[in-house]
Specification:
The chain is mainly β. The chain has strands spanning 12-13, 21-25, 32-41, 44-58, 61-70, 75-84, 90-98, 101-109, 115-124, 134-137, 140-143, 161-166, 170-179, 182-192, 197-200, 211-220, 224-233, 236-246, 252-257, 263-273, 276-285, 297-306, 312-319, 334-335, 339-348, 354-364, 369-380, 386-392, 402-407, 413-420, 426-435, 440-449, 454-458, 464-470, 483-489. The strands form nine sheets. A five-stranded antiparallel sheet has the order 1-32-31-30-29, with no helix packed on it. It has a five-stranded antiparallel sheet with strand order 24-25-26-27-28, with no helix packed on it. It has a four-stranded antiparallel sheet with strand order 2-35-34-33, with no helix packed on it. Pfam families: DUF6770.
């Protein structure tokens, strides 16, 4: 799965549908359902995390219960744990699966709407052991059990953070630095699967005290971690470089420029393929300091670097004007009658074929916003040359339709999911399905009907779509059922 399915609107399947699998979350577990999250093993779904907040032990501690389910809703691990808090509003921010371990990240809402005080607990699924809560503060790994985190006047205060996994190796814990609406990694520590510190992120020093680097996470695999090193002078963004580190010891294997003369690159998908780090996305006129506006968008790109050394291997561009053979499109991606083309999902198949999915949008006078019109897809060959472009006419909507993409069963193809979110009486799930064997697409549709219940989509195993319906405890629900989950088979092969 490349992207998590966003929670969206109030929807439910039509009554005529038969659910393949159902799972109920009951109130007799104690406490309230806090989160239900998908867990991934690489790009494959492993299972789910069900998290309940059991109690507030005191003003500074919360008690939680976790349940780990496999992708068929079978319970495989459960336990309870306590974690410290500084303010009442604490939430689960991350859940990462890695070789039988699950890392949970908790954060708190600070004044101004920002999150801070990131803490972690590490779960061993096999033994159900929960490691004592810990945090990364000022380059130090610290236990937080039965303590409160420091406030903003203390040197150990942190602005929150994120964790990233290196498959079968461990996790990179990163503290944030918030600048305006942007959040960057300012330091980090890599821990192994038992929670032991392995190495500290080797941050770069600027040419003067006013110059510094902050980092965006790009990709990782068993061998390497790739970061985008953003170079600043005070608050001014200057340039960016690719920093690749050895997962085992944190040693640098590449530090090279990512900037492109006369172009601003906006990466959508980036991953290691063999000895190369491959990035794909959209590009704009300008340079690395330019804003990415629709009116200066020019097309799509593929740029790849050597894992060792960071030398550029591939640097290919497809301007929108190259698509004029297929559709009436201008230099900035505006298609006649449909609006601007916005690509959302990029995929590289095992044979090297590139798939690109998007939708068009245009200004809508009545709503004062945008109307999203048609779905489009591109097929490009191994050399990033366009082989085919086509569109699918769907219902117009006032919100973007794209939700997520995933490989279909047995990795025989790829499906990209688009949902019409604002139809009057029903919603429509549009699935663009690519078949590796025939190198062709088809559009599958599932009609959804609105119902007076709180129900959202969630990511499911290959070949299925998931729905979770939340319930209120009232006369109609005396048993206190909190949620019900359904998996339904999608015939997309």
């Amino acid at each position: 799965m490349k992207k998590l399915l966003m929670l969206f609107l109030i929807i439910f399947m039509t009554g005529s549908r038969v659910y393949a699998q159902t799972y109920e979350i009951l109130g007799n577990l104690g406490g309230e359902l806090e989160e239900f999250k998908s867990l991934y093993d690489g790009e494959e779904l492993f299972g789910y995390l069900e998290l309940h907040k059991l109690d507030k032990i005191d003003a500074r501690q919360n008690k939680y219960k976790y349940i780990i389910l496999d992708k068929n809703f079978n319970k495989i691990s459960t336990n309870e744990f306590v974690i410290a808090r500084q303010v009442p509003n604490q939430r689960l921010s991350q859940a990462l699966f890695n070789k039988g371990k699950v890392l949970l990240g908790f954060t708190e809402l600070a004044s101004g709407g920002f999150y801070k005080n990131q803490q972690y607990v590490l779960i061993d699924i096999k033994t159900a052991e929960v490691k004592k809560p810990f945090t990364l503060q000022n380059y130090q790994l610290m236990n937080t059990e039965n303590t409160v985190l420091k406030d903003s006047f203390d040197k150990f205060y942190n602005e929150g953070g994120l964790a990233y996994k290196a498959k079968d190796k461990g996790f990179l814990l990163a503290n944030r630095s918030i600048s305006g609406s942007y959040s960057f990694m300012k330091n980090g520590i890599f821990i192994d699967l038992d929670g032991n510190q392995k190495w500290i992120l080797p941050t770069k020093v600027g040419e003067t005290p006013e110059h510094f680097y902050e980092y965006d996470f790009l990709a990782n695999d068993e061998k390497s971690i790739a970061l985008k090193a953003n170079y600043f002078k005070k608050k001014k963004y200057l340039s960016s470089k690719l920093l690749i580190l050895d997962t085992e010891n944190g040693k640098e294997s590449a530090f090279s420029s990512m900037d492109e003369s006369g172009k601003k690159l906006v990466i959508n998908t980036v991953k290691f393929i063999g000895d190369d780090l491959v990035s794909i996305g959209e590009y704009y006129s300008g340079d690395q300091t330019s804003a990415a506006f629709t009116m200066n968008k020019l097309g799509i790109f593929k740029k790849s670097y050597k894992r060792n050394g960071g030398n550029v291997v591939t640097n290919s561009y497809v301007p929108f004007t190259d698509l004029a053979t297929y559709v009436p499109i201008d230099v900035n991606g505006k298609i006649a009658k449909e609006g601007f083309l916005d690509f959302k999902d990029f995929e590289i198949r095992p044979d090297g074929t590139h798939l690109v999915f998007g939708e068009t949008f245009k200004s809508d006078f009545m709503s004062g916003g945008y109307k999203f019109t048609e779905l489009f897809y591109l097929i490009l060959d191994q050399n990033f040359k366009v082989v085919k472009m086509a569109s699918n006419e769907v219902n117009k909507s006032l919100y973007p339709k794209y939700r997520y993409g995933q490989s279909i069963q047995n990795n025989n193809g790829y499906a990209s999911f688009f949902i019409d979110p604002d139809q009057e009486k029903k919603l429509v799930l549009n699935i663009l399905v690519y078949n590796d064997a025939t190198k062709s697409f088809k559009l599958e549709k599932i009609d959804l009907e609105k119902k007076d219940s709180n129900t959202w989509f969630f990511a499911a195993k290959n070949g299925y779509v998931g729905l979770i319906e939340y319930f209120k405890k009232d006369k109609k629900n005396p048993g206190g059922k909190q949620a019900e989950l359904h998996l339904e088979k999608i015939y997309i092969e």
